[in-house]
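Possible regression after last week's pipeline update?

I re-ran a chain I had predicted before the update to compare outputs. Posting the input and the new output here so someone can diff against the archived version. Not blocking, just want to make sure nothing changed silently.
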Amino acid sequence: MQNLLFDIAPLLETHWTGIPVYTARLARLLLDDPKIEPVFFVHGRLIETKQVLRSLDAMTGLYLRNDYERDRLPAVLRRSRIDKALFPSVKSMYAIAPSEASVVHDLTTIITPEYHDSANIEFHRNNLLREIESNDIVFATSMATADDISYYLDVPHEKIKVAHQFVDWPAEFNLNFESRYPRDLSLPYVLVIGTIEPRKNLRLVLEAIKEILAIDPELKIVIMGKVGWRLNDALAGDVDSFVAQGRLKFAGFVDEFKKYCLIRSCRFTIFPSLMEGFGIPVLESFDLGKPVLASFSSSIPEVGQEAAVYFDPLSKQDFVRGFHKLYDKVMNDPDLTKSNALNVAAKFTPENFFKPFRSWILK
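New output (post-update):
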């Protein structure tokens, strides 16, 4: 059996989105593999498997972080027992195993620094080159991210492996949903997904709000996502009247089950982001049979493939055009749009995601 030191620092977050979800899915697969013995740690301190399982079952790092902050964790890890080390995000330690690897989710701090604060840019830029140079393998979340790593950081492609993420809603979500709502529920709203920050490009949607709501007097726009940074830059100015009318709603951060319900009940979703390392909201929508209006940018077409309708993320006119196109498709042939979405989602499996990691670990 191959032992593996696995950094679960991302799981210290209370609310899991993005990288914590990615880390949790990878941890589950490591635990399920009979040929791999994962050894979990946070900032150099060992985490017992039962503590990790507790967090995975609860889908929060609240209790794990509490143990860490109160110094209730076991002793510092013994490096002699480690063969390989894997960091699912930023590398926090170096030279702790004979062979090391980490995951690079995107290079937005390098390519689009205007969408980050200065502290975040400095932190990632100061660590990224050292991290990659110290790795045997770099895992990228998409081919687009792999190409960015190779081009901007001069890393040979043979050192980079792509691991496309997948979606795995808890089994009880479907049962809970269908106990509350009819199976064919499709409410007259379109769901916009993304943290409220400049890179997620919510401003474009709000600037076009009048034009897109004019398509149907019953239509509503629901925006789902936690507040990020530079809120004023992320939001357009005059939307108060639409909020007052009940046609524009801000759901804020929601838990995973509420997100599941919001996606499953909408007509389609919008993912307007300017740049993504992967674009998991697109895949989450497809997995529930919902088509997506998505920006044609970075890795997003790699996920959306032929099932999404795309628009230029810098053009309000093109966004409105795409909105009308997808709205007509959904209203005229909902079965086809659902089938197309599910067909693409079926390509992103746990097996395909885990294969490059497992190959490196057992090599």
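Follow-up from reviewer: compared with the archived run. DSSP finds 17 helices and 13 strands in the chain. Marking as no regression found.
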